[in-house]
Write a structure and sequence with these properties.
Low-confidence stretches: none
Mean pLDDT: 86
Protein name: WYL domain-containing protein
Structural class: alpha+beta
Number of helices: 17
Largest sheet: 7 strands, antiparallel
Shape: elongated
Number of domains: 5
InterPro entries: CBASS_pafABC_assoc_protein (IPR051534), Phytyl_CoA_dOase-like (IPR008775), WCX_dom (IPR057727), WYL_dom (IPR026881)
Organism: Chryseolinea soli
Pfam family, one: WYL
CATH class of the largest domain: Mainly Beta
GO molecular function: 2-oxoglutarate-dependent dioxygenase activity
CATH architecture of the largest domain: Sandwich
CATH superfamily of the largest domain: q2cbj1_9rhob like domain
């Protein structure tokens, strides 16, 4: 039942009297005490009637207010509490009270980042403690999305205060793409929250585009003596009007997005629109077509991808293509996953047979990126030089992070953690450049300069580069990695080997004898795979009989430094890829 302010004052006064057991309280005493308190607090000078106090005592005794006060009358005259420890301020909260207070606490906790609520935060904490002490097994009936470990929340209040006081700040900021932090003057206009992440919008100086900075990438905030540049025509509602999320292209135009949702998903999109511009365009037997008038941005893509195969983009074509590519790359990561469990078995095959093919070392997107860089480079070369590139990583150093991905680096470390690159070549077998390679062993290494050294023979020089045949042990320690950018099979000249022929350097007669009396093995390899090989294993390749390309990047590795001042011409350390 509702209780007015005067009644609460009377209840508290009666409670204070009955708790005071140093005095015996008659009904007249309680009436006088209530009258004096009402006059003191409310200025009411007409007093309190006998009937009013009697009704107050009756209410306090009942459970209508939840008090159930144990008020007794001694000697038919004096009022007191039967339980000397009782007070209406100590009564337990009802289940309904606890439920409502728990919900309120959860709501209030959302504001804990602001100094305006610091005092309230303490009150909330005390209230939480009170609730926890009072309730037994009651669970909260409302839960808000929150991320307690989110970075940047400590900056909310500082920015909030500067926005209110219209002051610029000196901001130290480092985006995810930046190698180091950058410090600049920033004029903040407003704070924006999206999916539990906070952003601050403002400008670096007057008449410059609005910047949207994530609080979790702010390193520090300092005071700034510069004059504040107030917003002139900035309005937060209109700024985000045409986007899903927070990524805004201030010069960008909106586009009509059409998406088809199946019948199971359509109600979810209809009841929780992706954007306020959402409309139903058409109802089909297969589902519902919705339209959005928005800018195309990252958050829109993420929202669409969140529905998985339940929706399909119909327009515009560039968004449709973008979503298709992303889903294709995602499938690539699962469908073409490198199996590290069998890595040691493959290394054992390399040791004993001299050859091993490992599938799915690269993703399709990796191979596409490598191919694109090679294509751009080869466009600038004469047509006759477009099928092979020596000193590949010296010519195209930007290929290194693409080639030495996590999988390849792990494979090389497993073979020998001390390996380093000694040679890198690219070649492409095509109908225009179709050659036959007879049976041979790779017995030549590439060095910086000629220094006559024992065991190093058959020196040659081509295009200013020195090649030499090293001692056999150096060749035995060499590991070759052939990265396949295309599928390789017999039709386009896949490599053939004689397994187990890598134990020593062979003479021409021995090579002829072995190959004439052995059954060669065709090393078929799919694009994105690698062929591990020992350079002394006998190998050859036939001319291609199909118009398919067979693009290969040939890498050689060793762990030995050369003697007598000789140096590997293309020596390059293997570094782990950046996260």
């Amino acid at each position: 039942m509702p209780v007015n302010r005067n009644a609460l004052i009377r209840f508290r006064t009666i409670d204070a009297c009955l708790k005071n057991r140093q005095r015996r309280w008659t009904l007249e005493d309680l009436i006088d005490a209530c009258s004096e308190t009402l006059y003191e607090y409310e200025g009411i000078d007409k007093g309190v009637s006998r009937r009013t106090v009697q009704m107050d005592i009756q209410l306090m005794r009942s459970d209508k207010l939840g008090y159930n006060a144990p008020i007794v009358v001694l000697e038919k005259k004096f009022y007191t509490y039967e339980d000397p420890e009782y007070s209406i301020t100590n009564i337990p909260l009802t289940d309904q009270d606890l439920g409502k207070l728990t919900e309120v606490v959860e709501i209030l906790r959302q504001f804990k980042g602001f100094s305006h609520f610091q005092e309230l935060s303490g009150m909330v904490q005390r209230l939480e403690n009170k609730i926890d002490a009072a309730k037994t097994n009651q669970e909260p009936v409302i839960d808000f999305e929150k991320n307690e470990n989110l970075k940047g929340l400590e900056h909310i209040d500082a920015l909030y205060q500067t926005i209110l006081k219209k002051r610029p700040v000196e901001l130290c900021y480092q985006s995810f793409k930046a190698r180091s932090a950058n410090t600049f003057v920033f004029h903040p206009y407003c704070l924006k929250e999206y999916r539990n992440r906070w952003f601050v919008l403002g400008v670096k100086k007057r008449n410059t585009p609005i910047l949207n900075l994530a609080l979790d990438r702010i390193v520090s905030i300092g005071e700034c003596p510069a004059k504040y540049a107030p917003a002139t025509d900035f309005n937060i509602s209109s700024f985000f009007h045409d986007v899903v999320g927070v990524s805004v292209n201030q010069d960008g135009k909106t586009e009509k997005v059409l998406l088809h949702a199946d019948h199971e998903t359509a109600p979810y999109i209809a009841t929780k629109p992706i954007h306020h511009s959402q409309n139903v365009e058409e109802r089909l037997t297969t589902g519902v077509v919705f339209s959005l008038q928005v800018q195309l941005n990252f958050e829109l893509e993420r929202e669409i991808l969140g529905f998985g195969n339940r929706i399909k983009i119909l327009a515009p074509e560039k968004l449709k293509r973008r979503i298709r590519d992303i889903l294709g790359e995602a499938l690539d990561q699962y469908q073409f996953e490198f199996n590290r469990g069998s890595l040691q078995n493959q290394i054992n095959k390399l040791i004993y047979k001299g050859s091993s093919v490992l599938h799915h070392v690269f993703r399709k997107r990796d191979v596409n990126a490598i191919s694109a860089k090679l294509h751009m480079y080869l466009k600038s070369r004469p047509a006759e030089d477009a099928y092979a590139v020596r000193n590949l990583l010296q010519e195209l150093p930007e290929l290194k992070p693409l080639l030495f991905n996590t999988n390849l680096t792990a494979i090389l470390k497993e073979i020998n953690p001390d390996l380093f690159l000694t040679k890198a070549i690219y070649f492409d077998k095509t109908p225009e450049s179709n050659w036959y390679v007879t049976w041979h062993q790779d017995i030549v290494i590439h060095v910086k300069e000629k220094i006559e050294t024992e065991g190093f023979t058959a020196w040659t020089k081509k295009n200013g580069e020195h090649d030499v045949c090293p001692p056999e042990q150096i060749l035995k320690d060499t590991v070759t990695v052939r990265i396949h950018l295309d599928d390789a099979d017999e039709s386009n000249g896949a490599l053939k080997i004689v397994p187990g022929s890598h134990q020593k350097k062979l003479s021409d007669d021995a090579i002829a004898l072995i190959t004439q009396n052995s059954i060669p093995h065709v090393c078929e390899a799919k694009a994105c795979s690698i062929h591990l090989m020992k350079p002394l294993v006998l190998h050859a390749s036939s001319k291609a009989t199909s118009p398919k390309h067979r693009r290969v990047i040939h890498l050689e590795f060793n762990a030995q430094e050369l003697p007598n001042g000789l140096e590997w011409a293309e020596r390059l350390a293997i570094s782990a890829p950046q996260a």
